């Protein structure tokens, strides 16, 4: 489950927070973080992983407390290093020539003094896949786990899961506190939900294991309608 952090003080200020210290959830963001507990009440969650930044830590804290889980910090899920763009107003950045490249040719976009979006996708996808494989091996089956990160990071992971080129990742939306769900199998990922801000996510629970411990392939991507091969 790819969870974007709740609404932050930077979101409402319309600035590019990046890795700026001290950016926290605003009042609405704290409400969203608390609401996640109820949204996921019927979902069995084995682990919570999050970006090291404060807004992600605050987003998963209520859920972790409710489940008695100790969140795992994953530095590869950290926000994009926007370099010299960090902290600047979005309306000002719209005038930068690089903005069009970020929107239309993301794979070539490298932020001045920062990192490239292709690097972001590589590190984030590697982290998600490694944690997913680790947890599947640990439990001997597919499990549901939460990865709390940032908008551009989540969109890059979803683009990979969809088999889409990074240049099209801006077509994907990941709102604050939204949840997207990817099921990884031995052959390909299945995207079950994207940008979900609703209240009922019980449909993402993992079906009973087949008994052989294998990570089964599925035909179709609708929870409850899967046919194990």
UniProtKB/TrEMBL annotation:
Keyword field contains NAD: no
MF-aspect GO terms: fructose-2,6-bisphosphate 2-phosphatase activity
Residue numbers spanned by region Disordered: 1-26, 203-229
Record key words, sorted: Hydrolase
Protein origin, superkingdom: Bacteria
Record's GO cellular component terms: cytosol
Gene Ontology BP annotations: negative regulation of glycolytic process; regulation of pentose-phosphate shunt
Protein name: Phosphoglycerate mutase family
Organism ancestry: Bacteria, Bacillati, Actinomycetota, Actinomycetes, Mycobacteriales
